[in-house]
Structures are given as C-alpha cells and as structure tokens.
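Quick one - inputs below.
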Amino acid sequence: MRTILSLFAEYLGGTRFRLRMEPRMKQPGWLGLIVSLGAVTFALVLGGIVLMLVGGDPIRAYVFMAMAAFGNIGVFSDTLVKATPLILVSLAAVVAFRMRLWNIGAEGQFYLGAFGASLIVLTPILPPETSPWLMIPAMMVMGMLAGALWGFIPGYLKAKYNVNEIISTLMMNYIAVAWNNYFIFDVWSEGGFQMSRQFPKTAWLPRLTDYAAQVPMFRGLTIHLGFVIAMIAAGVVWWILYRSRWGYEIRLIGDNPRAARYAGINIVRNTILVMMLSGALAGLGGMLEISGVVHRLQGAISSGYGFTGIIIAWLAKLNPILVVPISILFGGLLLAGREIQPSGIPMLIQGIILVCLIGSDFLFRNRIRLVRVGQEA
Amino acid sequence: MDDHLNVVELKGISKQFPGVLANDQVDFSLRSGEIHALLGENGAGKSTLVNILTGLYRPDKGTIRVEGEYVDLRSPRDAINYGIGMVHQHFMLVPTQTVTENILLGLDEPRFNMNLSHYDQIISDLGEQYGLQVDPRARIWQLSVGEQQRVEILKMLYRGANVLIMDEPTAVLAPQEIQELFTTLRSMIAEGKSIIFISHKLDEVMAIADRITVLRKGKLSAEGLLTKEITKHDLAREMVGRDVLFRLNKVEQTPGDIVLAVEGLKALNNKGIQALRGLSLHVAAGEIVGLAGVAGNGQTELAEAITGLRPITEGKVVVHGQVLIEGNMSGQRRSRHVRQVIDAGVSHIPEDRTHVGTAPNLSITDNLIMKGYRQPPIAKGWSIDSLSANTQAETLREAYDIIVPTVETPARLLSGGNLQRLILAREISCEPKLMIAMQPTRGLDVGAIETVQRLLLQQRENGAAILLISEELEELISLSDRIYVIYEGEIMGEVMEADSETIGLMMTGTRQKDLVATRKVSR
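Output:
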C-alpha cells in the first residue's frame, strides 16, 4: 500500500514528496460521514465508467436511479418498505457481532419468523375475525419466538459444546427454507400453488394507502407500520447495547472475553441470550414482511436480506442507529436497480459501492500526509 | 572514537507519532562484545528507538550504520539479515503452535516437508547450549511467561543474531531466572555477540551493563556512561530528572482479624498438571503479605483460584469466615464464583493487565465500571446510569492521575503505567477488604512503581488485607509484613524478618523446617 501511494505521489509531484500514513488518534463521527460520502462518490464515478463502457449515459442512469428510489413520495415509500426487513436483519447482525458471535443465520431466522407468524393465522391459532389489536401482536410475538428458537439452537451448541456458530447458523438457513417450503408446498398450499392462502385483513399491518379515503394524498403509499416498528427496534437495540447492564456485558465480552470472565460475567448464558435476541430481531423482520407486504406465506420472501444485513451491519460499524439510513440507502438501491435492469449493472454498481465503502474504512482509521522526502532522510 | 568498533551506530534519530515526539535527535552506539544498557522511564522512547533499529518503524530523520555501513532497515527481516535480532517485551509468538514451529516461522528452511522432530532436536540442543531449557514440542499457550521468553531468545539465536536486543527481559523473570539470563548474556558476549539491554531497573543495569545510555522524554539524557564510573543515584537522576526516594514510609501497625484463609488448596494448571498441592495461608486485616517464588510455581493459579477464575479440586477459600470456594463445587458455574468473590469485597489486580485487566477498545469509563456496574449508583435497575458512570470516571481519572484526553478514550491507547493506574483506580475505589495484587509493578517505570506501592501501603493503613504476589524480592521485602515462599505449589515457609538469603533458599525448594535443622546442625 505504502509503495503504491508513494509512486502515486511521485507521479503527481516529482520525487520531492511522498505520502505517509499514520493511525488517527481521534476518530470523530463527522469524519466517518465525510469519508463514507467520498467513497460513495468515488464508487459512482467508477460505476459511471462502467456504464459508459457498456454504452450507457452514466448521468442519465444515475438520475434515473435516484428518481426511481427517492424521486417522489410514492417511490420513496417503496424504498422504505424495502428498507424495513433490511433494518431488522441488520440489527440482528449488529447484536450478535458486538459479542463477536458470527451469526450469519439471519436469513433462516427471518424465514422462521415468517413461519411463526403464519402459525397464528394459518393453523389457525386465532380465528380470522380476531381484532388486529390482538392478531398483530400475537404474530409479532410468535415470529420473534420462532426466530429466537432458530438462534437458540446454534447459541446453545456454541455455549455448551463450542460448536462453530458460523457453520451451524449457515446450515440452519437451508433447514429454515426447506421447512417453510414443506408448509407452502403441502400443508398450507393453496390450490397446488406454492404459497399459502392470503391472510385475512386482520393480520395485515396497516399501510398509509389504507387511509386514502380520509387523506387522499396517502393513495398508493404502501409503507406500513412495520417501518415504524423497525425504527423502534433500532432504538431499543441502541438502548440495550449502550445504556443497559446487559449491553455492557455484551460489549465487554465482545471486546475481551477474558476481562469479562474476570469481571464475573456469565459468558455461556450471554452467548445463548444474544443469539436468541439476534434471532428474534431477524424473525420480527420476517413477520413484518409477510404481514406488511406479501400477506401470505410463500417462498422467496427474502432476496438474501439476511446476507445484505451482514454488510449493512458492517458498514454501520455495528451502530444500530446508523443501520437505519444505510438500510434505506440499500432499499433504494434494490428498488432502483430493478428499474433499469433486473440484475447485472445495478448489482455491479452496488458491489462497487460496497467495496469502496469498505476500503474507505482505511482512510477513516489512518491519516495520509504528504511529506517532503528531505524531511525523512 | 574509532568508528569500526561500533557494530551498530544510530545518529540523530527522530520519530514523530501523532501527538508525541517519541525520539528527538537520539544518538546511540553499540560496540562489539559489550552489553549496552538503554535506560529510561516508560514512554522515554526506548522501545521506539529499538523498533527503529529492528526495522519495525522507520525514522523520520537520522541514520543507521551496521558494521560501519549505512543501512535502510525496512522490516525485521532486513534487520535479522544484518544480524540484529530483538526479544520483545510483549512476546510475538503464536499461542497455538509449538515452540519449534514458532522458531521456524518465517524461515526459508524447512521448505515444504517439515521434519519437525529433526528441528525439535536442534532447538533442544541450542537451548541446552545457552541454558535455555524448554520443551520444543510444547505449545506456547502452555508455557509460563518465563519459558515463553526463552523461546523468543532461542528464536533469535536460531536465526544467527549477532546483535541481540533485549526489551526489558527481566520484567517477566524471577530472581533466579534473572541470574541465569545474566549468565547466558555473559556467555554470549564472550562469543563476540553484542547486546542492547533495555531496562528501567537500576540494580540490574548496574550489574550487567558495560555502558549505559539514558533516555528521558524522547531525548538523550546521558550517552555511553561507563558503569564503573557512576552510581545508582546518578543514574536515577539522569532517568527521571529528580532524586528518587528509595525508602518507603511504612507505618507500624498490628494486623487485625484474619480476612483471607486458604486451606489445603489444590488446583490444576492449564496443562492439567497439579499446580497447587494443598496450599494453606492466611492474610489479616491491615497487613501486606508477600508471596515470593520463582515464576511458574503456582502463583498464577493461586490468584486465579482465590478469585474464582480457576476451579479447585480440593480445599477451600474463606473470606471473613465465609466459605467462598470449595473443592467440590466444580459442577457449578464459575462466573457465579467470580461474582461472589467480587461481592465479598475482594479486588484483584491481575498479572496480565492488557489481556485480563482491561478491554482494549472500550472507553476508560467502561473499563472503570467493570466491577461496579452491577451495583448502584452505576446500576439503575436494568440500565447503567451513564451520568454517574462518567462522573465516577472523571473523579478517578483526577484522583489516580490517569493521563488521557477524555474518559471516552479507548483503553488501548494508554501506556503501561496509565493502564495500571486505571486498574488500581477501579480495584481500590470499591473499598476492598482483601486485595490480591499480582505483579502490580511489573514493567512500570520508577515513578509509576512509587505510585503503586504508595497506594498499596495506603490500603494497608485503611485496614485492607493484601496478598502481594511478586517476583521482585526487593519490593516484597520493603512492602510486606510477612512473606510466604511458594515452590511447586506448596508453601515452603513463612518469614517475618525478611532476609533475601533465606527466601532464596526456600524459593529453590528448601523447606523452612529443614533450613532451621541444617542451621542447628552447623552450629
């Protein structure tokens, strides 16, 4: 890295100067924002070059994408709908990663959350005419419990038998998907289609468009209560991590398990509890998605949200509040991408942005200075 | 001075780190076949200087000559190619690999097929040659700190180091081991090797060095003094810039009730070998009881057993008449024992302050509340009262002179002395009835040692019972009211009027009663 930088500097200014890097002692919050924005800009320039190479007009493409995601209240509402499950799976990752538990099973926990919520409606545990005031909370609780169970299993194995949670959570993703498939292919299949029947309206999360009769400008806005719940969840996770005794234990174990042991903290119990909380958050995400958007249990309710969540958690530097704006950005990318091409270029641009953001972390942690060669020797 | 006599010559070395000028125009030269001590307080720039010499850092200014030739050292590999090898204060070993694997790490030979048993033999022989015995097949995590250091030295010898840099090598060693090390160093000198010996222990420097260079706050304070021509007091003055008090003010007081009673304690070490063999001792209120012993004789295990961190197989630990830990409790959760011990008013200054005592990336505040976060005023129901946590942190920062920009600073940015002050602040602020202090002054500079010792004596006056586990005899003798001597997990004896000869004999495995017997016989 150092040689590349110095070569670059020599190219720019002859041999009189060279670039040097040194770790930053202070890492103020605003700096992170500036560095991230710079990285996104840089990525867009790179993406623009790619767009030009394939014969497109980058400016037009970007304007189009921006409009498609944030251009008017209608599409912005769609962006927020996309962001909702992302926020929850990212929070699931944040909680686990804080304790250095590498739960990459948010995808499976998400599916199981959807299944748990469906149990209430489709078994049915509660009849369709139940008041939404009971139906919705019951679905949330069941979704979170199911997700928590999917977190408990690898958590218990890790805590008691030191089973690698990366492997176990990854594998349990496949089980979760197959489990759901069994129900939508057979038990709850509607007329042989691979989906359940539609949920009764009492099991739907309220959307803005549902109130179009009273407030005409809400017409067509699909944003649902789930987004609010997701934001509350972000606040709760922040409170747990930074203001609660439990969160202190999580952060201490994550940073130095030996110090945590020395402070008398029960690592076994916390491993299980944190995996359960992580699973419950992802499970809540699954519940919100089927109750707020698809209104039935079906396959492919997630386009890899669980994995995108890992990336978002990392970009947010495991800060639960930062997860919200970054999820919205990713929601927008998902939405806008589909507008110009179902796959391909948008995914590519998304990838470039990711690489640039991750790379920019280096600039956040280190300072690059231009120094005279003479000063050094 | 004739230039070619110098194996290594540094001229006008400067190195700037963000916020501190670690080295400012430093000159240093090492003659062939000498031991040259580099003396200075913590943060004086000793480590930076030798890190430059080993290619870990590059100087902002200045030149390096090896055997008269100007060199540009870009990496430790460059340095070792010029025959410069360093034994770091913080060991650079892979814990899960064996001694041999660690020594061979990064070398060109063996290439693909590692004939480990062949190399085991070579390393075993090399160890014997220099009196650095260590099992080449043992994994690093199973070794004591002293043994790990031997591996580091062997690593450099194996690489054919001609100039050996020892970064505070005695900080981790017991008195006997120090003597062995000195013997090794002298024999290496006799074979024409040269040694840079970094330390802040005046006695050792006086004992081993031919010449002494003193650094103070990054600057050269004295260069190349001949050991024969100076006194300890002169050196101390050069080092800290003021006269240092060597005598401590210890108040005469009678000990109170027994606070800690350890009875017939047995426990295993990490390798599963019996480390404590039925050990008994007691500590009363208002006394400092020292535990002397060569490293690796069960001190670590004892501290861990008393504080509940290590399961015990037999015996019990009683604090204020309450049985806290018993041998038959192994089935229960250990974290609860640790909590019970903490709640009983036992504080613990751990041996390893970076890996056990603190969490590197958490803030000063978070590190200070590690023991107190379960109780009010820090705890408020399920939450932590961040306001009172911060207030407490600010108060402790002031009171214990922890030098940091803010209490939000992560602990990893603290120097060794500051880190120890943080730990002491935390462990003393909970007003302990019993303190288990393990090597509390290890690796600290003169000023910081004074602070730590003063704080311990102050706790004694406040009526706390203190078990001081240390390998520094001088410290034990000046601080303790009584001294136990531990050898292979057993107490060899107890002395009130400490004299280092008796202790030394017991540290090497002679029981006190046999000692008295032989004396009687000789009379």
